Amino acid sequence: MVFEILLWLPIVSLLRFKSVCKSWYSLIESYSFVYQHYHHIHVDRLEKDEENLIIIRNPHFSTDQCIISLISGKKNLFQVSENFHLPQPPFAKTDWVRLVISCNGIICVQPNLDYYNFFLLNPAIKQFRLLPKTPDLLTSSRSNYLKVYAGFGYNSRTDDYKVVRVVYKDMKVEAIQVDVCSLSTDSWKTIDAALVPHVTISYSGLTTPFRNKIYCWFADEGFDANNRSFGKTILSFDFSKDVFETIPLPDVYKVKAKLMLSLLWDNIACIEIVRRGKCDCSVWMLYEYGVKESWTKLYTISLDFGIGHRGVWKNGELICQTKLKGGREGETQFCLCNPVTQELKILSVPLPLRLPYPIAVYKDSLVSIKSANGATHLSPAVEPIA
Q: In which domain of life is the source organism classified (predicted)?
């Protein structure tokens, strides 16, 4: 009975109730309770309004500091619930963040221009964890000739979270190094780079892994003498098997360059962005994983030029970034675009500059990211900004 009652409570209450007695502490910390609480759908949550946004506001001046903003999506109000600074150390005040991926309430972040460090954050329970430094690169080339991409996901077979790092040299098709970090062992391993198909990741993909275990990137299928891509595809990594695969795109996107990956209703979605006076966004969804013929075009939205697109919210709404009306020169804001009415709903999060801000959709969870060996590099809980 206690188990069922506690499932209905928000995380902030559960954290307090852990101190009631040892049995409640053990229950709330148990794998079974953490799993069921995350997947528990309340009667008043049928529209999944418990989903939230995390936005990284990188510093733009020497006096600035990176701010992690948590945007509550409850009842579609989209208000800033909390702001955090990156812990110092290990991060310098002016460090930038370029990669944000969420999985089961855990946020994986990579500092900009840093090939060796990743950190995890669970904002709901205020835990922060710096992962071990990645293995040294197996090349003597200068770092600015390298391209490094990463993914984050969950292996349900072993109840383990993993980070994968893929390294390319110049514009070559073959990856030169692939490393995988397991949270359960708190260590990295280098796997055979030949396992990566002969494609080159062109830019980062999903901000949430597909069904927790598969991360995807857009990739090029080789280049001609003028460094023009022969075509586009999707490269995926399965965290349960540590293997790579490719997923074909619709033929109409074989040579399209401006594409985005996202998740929509637990399926992989592809967003094509065409700028011709206005900005037309076409959204396709892959109904059956790996089956090219199951790609289906859902809708096309036409928006004013100058609106940047950052992903897809629940119910197919596009997450956009646009100029802040009445704001100072260069100030921007986030908004949601309804695919049916094409109306914009403004999110009350002012942004100082017209730059792409890393974002991800996430849901609060009790999943702990403490390391099993006592976490010698587990930093103190992240403190909110006063």
A: Eukaryota
